Amino acid sequence: MKIVCTVNGQRRELDVRPMRRLLDVLREDLGLTGTKEGCGEGECGACAVHVDGRLMNACQMPVFQAHGRGIVTIEGLGDRDHPDPLQAAFVETGGVQCGFCTPGLLMASRALLNASPQPTETEIREGLAGNLCRCTGYGRVIEAVQLAAGVPVVDAPAPVDGSGLPVPAPDDAVHVLIPDRLDQALADRAAGPCTILAGGTDLMAAFNAGLPVPDRVLDVSCLQELRGIEVTAAGVRIGSATSYSDLIDSPDVTRIWPAMAEAARLVGAPAVQNMGTVGGNLANASPGADLVPALAALAGVVVLVSRQGERRVPVTEFYRGYRDCDCRPDELIAAVDLPTPAPDLRQAFFKAGTRRAQSIARVNLAACARIDGQGSLRDVRLVAGSVAPTIALLPRTTAWLEGRAISAPNLADEAAALAADEITPIDDVRASAAYRRTVLGNLVARFLRG
Amino acid sequence: MKVVGKPLPRRDAWDKVTGRTRFIADIPRPGAWFGGAVRSPVARGRLRGLVRDGGFDWSQVVVITAGDLSGPNTVAMIREDLPLLPVDEVAFVGQAVALVAAPDPATLAGALAALRPDIEELPAVLSIEHALRGDRVIWGEDNLIADYTIAPDDMDAFTAAMARGRIIEGVYHTGYQEHIYLEPQGVTATPRPDGGVEILGSLQCPFYVLNALTRALGLERDRLVVRQAPTGGAFGGKEDYPSVIALQAAVLAMASGREVAMIYGRHEDIIASTKRHPSRTIQRTAVAPGGRLLAADIDVVLDAGAFTTLSPVVLSRAILHAAGSYDIPLVRIRGRAVATNTPPNGAFRGFGVPQSIFAAERHMDRIARELGEDPLALRRRSILKPGDALPHGQVLPEGGTAASLVLERAIELSGYENRREEIAAANASATGPERRGIGVSLVHHGAGFTGDGEDKIDAVVHVRGEADGTATVLCSCVEMGQGAETVLPAIAAEALGLPLEAVHYHQPDTGAVPDSGPTVASRTTMVVGKVLVQACGDLAEQALTHGTDAHGTDARAAWSARAAAGEPLVGEGRYEPDSSIRWDQQHHHGDAYQGYAWMATVVETAVDTDTWEIRPERVTVVAEIGKAINPVLCVGQIEGGMLQSLAWAYLEEVRLDGGRYLNDRLATYIIPTCLDAPAYTVKLAEEPSPRGAYGSKGLGELPMNGGAPALAAAVEHALGTAPDFIPMTPDRLLAHLQELQP
Ligand SMILES: Cc1cc2nc3c(=O)[nH]c(=O)nc-3n(C[C@@H](O)[C@@H](O)[C@H](O)COP(=O)(O)OP(=O)(O)OC[C@H]3O[C@@H](n4cnc5c(N)ncnc54)[C@H](O)[C@@H]3O)c2cc1C
Ligand code: FES
Ligand code: FES
Predict the structure, then answer these.
(1) Do A439 and B9 touch (CB under 8 A)?
(2) Does A411 lie in the same domain as A364?
(3) A95: closest CA among A46, A142, A131?
(4) What whole-number distance in Å separates Cα of residue A391 and Cα of residue A366?
(5) What are the tens digits of pLDDT across the range B608-647?
(6) A22, A44, A201: residue to mutate for ligand 2 pocket, most atoms within 8 A of CB
(7) Whole-prediction pTM
C-alpha cells in the first residue's frame, strides 16, 4: 500500500504492508531506531511518538493510519547541537539511566509541555504515566520536566497534505478498507465479514499476543461522521470514533456527565487516551472496561447503523455475555447517546485498579441517584465492571435502595452487603472473587455516603 | 578533588536522549537469521521426543535438540546441572527443549508452531513447603540445592539463651520479582571463519558468558568473543540468563553457518528469564525480661527453581544479612535453597538480602509490638555499634558502622516522631476510608563478593595511554544504566589528573579487555574502581620511566609519544588481596565483606480501606555509601532502587498455576508508573571507606533492601496489624484482615 506522511518534517512516500506496525516501519524501513519496543502492547510507552502533535504508541498503530499525518520521533526532537530543552534537562538532572525508556519519556514530556507549558507536579505525573521507567524511580525525570517547563520551543512541523486515501496494493496480504464516508463503510461492511479497526488499542495488543490478523480490515478512524461530541438540550451524541482525550478535553462532558469524564480520565494513560475510542470500548465488550459502566449508568443508548438503517440499543441491554455484544456483522457502532441528566443527579465513577494509571479495573462502579424532596433515593442506577462476564447492573441492590431514605440507619452497610451478595465474580490473575465482592460493596457504600 | 564528587553529567547521556544509542535490537544485521525455542508446557515430565509436523518444509530451517549437541550439554554456572537442552526430562514450564533458526520471523514462527515436544507429564514439586517435605525428590537426594549454617562460636551459650529468654517467633514470606529491565534480553551470535563464534549482547558479565561458551562448545577461548551492547537495564537479570540465550544462539549460529539473533519480546522474556527468589524465613528471638535481645535462631529458605544457577551465592548473601543491623549476641542462621519444578530463579539487585532483611526488619517490629515498645526505640537500643560482632564473627571496626548515623538523620529529616503521633491521631478520628501510616527501616549491604570471593575473581583492569593524550579504561564491567561508563572514567580522570572528557571507556569485549570480574554485587565502583586507580598509577609510572628527556616528567606527553609511535603504554591494576581478611567459606565465618553501606528509610503511606490499595507517598532515605563519586548518579540509583523495593512490597506479583507464570506480560505484571511513585528526599552521608576507590562503597543494591520493610511498617501503623508477607496486594491485604476477624 502506498502512503504519504511526514516523518520529522520530511515528506515520506512509503510503500508498505498496511497492517505493519508504525513502530516497525520507523525502525526497519526508515532506520529510526530511537523509538524502542519494550512490550508491543501499549503498556510501556517506549515506542511513543507524536502523531499530528499527539502522543501515540507506535506499536499500536498500523502504518496505514499514518497516512497524511505528521510523525515526530525522538530523532526529530532535537540533537546535541540543537537540543530540545527537555533533552538538556534530562542530561542535567540525571533523568536518564539505561536510556531505553528515555526516547518515549521525552516524547511524552514534550507532548505534555506543549499542551501545558507550566504543569503542576501532578500534571507531570499524569502526563508521563504511560511511560514505564524501571531505572530512575521517576524522581530525576520529574525534576527534568520541571526544569524544562516554560522554556519555549519551535513547534512541531505541519502535517502533510494526505488528501486522497492510500492505495491498497493487490499483494497486500490483508485487505484494508479505508472508507472516508459512512455509506461507503456500510457498503464495505455488508460486502462480507471484516474486522473493524478504530484506535487499535485492543486489537493491536491482541495481534501482538498471537491473534491472527484477519483478511479484511475495515478502518473507521477516517470517518468524520463517527467523530465528535454534539451537545444539545436533550443530551449528547458521542461519535464512536471519539477518543478518550476528546471526552476529557470537553468542558461539557466534565460538567454534565462527570462520571463519564472520570471514567475516561482513569483509562490507561495519555497515549491510550489519545488512541482508544468510545466505540472500541463498547464493542470490545471486555468485562473490565471502564467507560461502559459509566455509559450504562448514565442511561446511554448505543446507536448502531447498517445499510438497513439505524438501531438503538440501551447500553444496559447491549451485552449478551462474555465479550459478546449485540452488534450484527453488517452493523457498526455509530455513536452513543446520553440524555441530559436531571440537574440534581449525583454521579460517581470509582475504580479499584491494578495501579494508579495504565491500570485494568479489579472492580469498577458507576453510580447515579437523585435525592428527592423527602430525602429519598430516586433513579438509582448502579453498574459494576469486572465482577461478572459483562457489566453487572445490581438489580436487587438498586431496587432495595429506590425510594429509601438516604438518612436511614446502616443504609450504606446494608446496601454494600446486598451488592456483594448479588454478584458471582470469578478468581482471575487480577483479583479474587472474595476481593471483588467486598470491594464492590465498599464502593457502593462510598457512593451512598457521598 | 577535581572530578570525583562532582555531579558531572553521564558520558552516555546525550546519545541516549537523542535516540542515537544503538541497543542490540537497533543494530542492523543484514542477512541474519532468527532463533527461537520450543518450550516445555509442563512443569515436570519425561521427554520422549520432538514431533515434527510433516506439512512443514523443514529444509528451510535448522532444528537442534540435545542429541545434536557435540560439546558437554551444560550451561556452566556454579554447577553444571542445567542442561543447554534436556535429554530425557523437563523440569520447568518454559524450559527450552529444542532450538530453531530460520531466515525470517514468520518462518521461525511457522516452524515453532509445527514442533511439539512429546512429554509424559510427571508429578511436580511446586512450593517451598513441598520441596522441604522431601516426599518427592526432584533434585539431588533431598531437594536441597544449598544448605548452609552460620553457627555461634559458643553453641552452649546459644542453647541456654534460647531456653532462658522469652521466644518471639515470626514467619515471613516474600514473593517473586521480575526485573522488567525495559530492554528485553537479546543476543546475536556470529560464526567466525576459524570455527569459533562471536556474541554481541545485552549483558552484565561478558566473562561469565565466555566461560559458559568455552565449556559447552568445547572451544578454546581464542576462538570465542563476547561483546556487550549498550544494555537497557539489567538489575541482575542479565547476570546469569545471558549465558543461556548466548549459548542457544551460538549453537544455532554454528549449525546454520549464519549470524543468528535471539532478541526477546516481553512475553518470552518474562516466561524464560530468571526472577527474584521467593522466600520463607522463620525468625525466633530470645528476649530477656528487660527486653534485651539475647539470641536469635533464623531459618531462611529460598525457592531456587529447578536448577542451581546462582542460588547458592544468593543464599549465602541472604543469610549473612539475616540478623539485620542489630547487635544480637548469639545468632544461629540456617539457609537452604530448595529445588522446585519452576523456572530457575537468579540474581536480582540485592541478591537474597532484600528477602532476609525484610524478615529481620519485620521481626523487629513484631518484637516491639509484643514488648509494647516503640519500634524506633527498640531499634535505637539494639543497633550495631563499632566493636560489635556480626553473626558470622566479623567485628565492626571503629568507623565501620554508620547505622546510628543514618537512622538518626532519617528520623530527623522526615520528622518521623512527630508525624507518627500526628498520623495516629488523625487515623483515630478519621471518618473517611483513608488511613495513613509511617514506618522506618534500617538496613545494610555488604559490597563486593562474599569473603575471599574477590581473591578468586582476581580482577584486572587496564588503562591505555592514547596518542592524543587521552586515556582509555579497559575493563569488563559494563554500563547498564547504573553509570559505570561515567564513574570509572571519573575515577581514572581523577587518578591521572585529566578532565573527564579525556578518558574513554572501551566497550567491554572479552577479546580486548582484561577480566575485571562481573558487573554484580555492587563491586564495580568500590572494588574495580580501586584496581583502576592502581592501573592509572601504573600507566603514569610507566610513562615516566619510558619518557624521554624531551618529555621531562609529563606522563601524558610520554604516553602520547609512545602511542603515536604505535607502542601504546598500558597500565595494569590487579586486585590486591588483603591478608588481614579472614574467611572460612565452609562455616560462613569471618570477614564476609570488606565494607558495609548503611541506609535508613522512612516511608509514609496512605491505605484506602475501601479498596485496600496502598499508596506510598513520601520516602526519606539517608544512605551512608562511603565517598559518592558522582552524587547525581548516587541519588538516581537510590531513587530507582527504592521504587523497585516498594513495588516489590505492594504492587509486583507473580502467581503460578501448575508451575506456569500467570503474570507473563506487562499488562499483568504490574510495575509502578510515574503516578505510583512517591516523592523522595534522599541524603547521602559520606564516611570514606579505606577499601574502595577514593573511599567509595558499593551502592547499587542497598536501596533494594530498605523500601519493603519500611512500607510494611507504615502499613502496620496505618491499620494496626502487620502483614508478614509481601507483596501486600489489595487482595492479600484484605484476606489477611478478614482472617484476623472472627
Ligand atoms: C495500555 C492499555 C491500557 C488500557 N487501559 C484501559 C482502561 O484503563 N480502561 C478501559 O476500559 N480500557 C483500557 N484499555 C482498552 C481501551 O483502550 C480500549 O477498550 C479502547 O477503548 C478500544 O478502542 P479502540 O478504538 O482502540 O478499539 P480497537 O482496538 O480499534 O477495537 C476494539 C474492538 O472494537 C471493535 N470496534 C471498534 N470500533 C467499532 C465500531 N465503531 N463499531 C463496531 N465495532 C467496533 C473492533 O472490531 C474490536 O473488536 C487499555 C488498552 C491499553 C492498550
Ligand atoms: S512497545 Fe510498549 S507501548 Fe509500545
Ligand atoms: S532509564 Fe532505564 S528504564 Fe528508564
Answers:
(1) no
(2) yes
(3) A142
(4) 10
(5) 999 999 999 999 999 999 999 999 999 999 999 999 999 9
(6) A44
(7) 0.97
